[in-house]
Amino acid sequence: NAGVTQTPKFRILKIGQSMTLQCAQDMNHNYMYWYRQDPGMGLKLIYYSVGAGITDKGEVPNGYNVSRSTTEDFPLRLELAAPSQTSVYFCASSLTGQVAHFGNGTRLTVT
Amino acid sequence: GENVEQHPSTLSVQEGDSAVIKCTYSDSASNYFPWYKQELGKGPQLIIDIRSNVGEKKDQRIAVTLNKTAKHFSLHITETQPEDSAVYFCAASIGPTGTASKLTFGTGTRLQVTL
């Protein structure tokens, strides 16, 4: 199993641009999550999903959108990128809802 | 909402010594407490977790203790090795198994194991 795969690894965006961060898992996990990690801080939950077709907001959802059309994929969309969205983004998945397996992250810089 | 505080922010120990990292949480309803190890350029990796119905859990050189009354939990690493050097995060969440775990993370402890 590849686990949780995130692409791209790095990306630089200009203010106002849009992009989609990709996340795929091959463990048939129903639960998937998006977190962001700012320097010197813990991870904060952006959005999560409990299964295909079902998504919900986390602690810091503003400026982001998600969709979950399949069990495997959980893309995160940034519309109108802002410097405050410069961060490292982690996707995670879980079989039971609690124990989370994380991907290796996407480092995004908005200038 | 839940708030998790983690101390210390940096910790340097000599190889073979023990390391202890402490976290406190604010919401008494939290019932799941995982610890993650994050190496440079990687995502967090679960190293041990504990549920609120257990006071202590051990896995080889790693142990976690939970004091529900005081709302704090700790990570203990014994016989530290250079490969233990990393950033460690504690987290807490509410909800039974089978529900989405919306983890609240501490701010991390950078552990340096020196030779």
User: C-alpha Rg of chain B, in Å?
Assistant: 14 Å
Distance between the termini of chain B: 41 Å
Structural class of chain A: mainly beta
User: Strand tally of chain B, please?
Assistant: 11
Number of helices of chain A: 0
Multimer state: heterodimer
Q: Detail the poorly predicted runs of chain B.
A: none
Distance between the amino and carboxyl termini of chain A: 36 Å
Helicity range of chain B: under 10%
Number of strands of chain A: 11
Q: Tell me the greatest interface.
A: A-B, 28 and 29 residues
Strand coverage percent of chain B: over 45%
The helix content of chain A is under 10%
Written as H for each helix and E for each strand, in order along the chain, the element string of chain A is: EEEEEEEEEEE
Report on the architecture of this protein.
The complex is a heterodimer of chains A (111) and B (115). With 111 residues, chain A is mostly beta strands. Chain A has no helices and eleven strands. Chain A has strands at residues 4-7, 10-13, 19-25, 31-37, 43-51, 54-57, 64-66, 76-78, 87-94, 101-102, 106-110. In chain A, strands 2, 4, 5, 6, 9, 10 and 11 form a seven-stranded mixed β-sheet that branches. A four-stranded antiparallel β-sheet of chain A has the order 1-3-8-7, with no helix packed on it. In chain A, strand 9 and strand 10 form a beta hairpin. In chain A, 37% of the residues are buried. In chain B, strands 2, 4, 5, 9, 10 and 11 form a six-stranded mixed β-sheet that branches. In chain B, strands 1-3-8-7-6 form a five-stranded antiparallel β-sheet, with no helix packed on it. Helix content of chain B is 0%, strand content 53%. Chain B is mostly beta strands. In chain B, a hairpin with a 4-residue loop joins strand 7 and strand 8 (72-77). Chain B is built from no helices and eleven strands. The model of chain B has no long low-confidence stretch (mean pLDDT 94). At the A-B interface, strand 4, strand 5, strand 9 and strand 10 of A face strand 4, strand 5 and strand 10 of B.
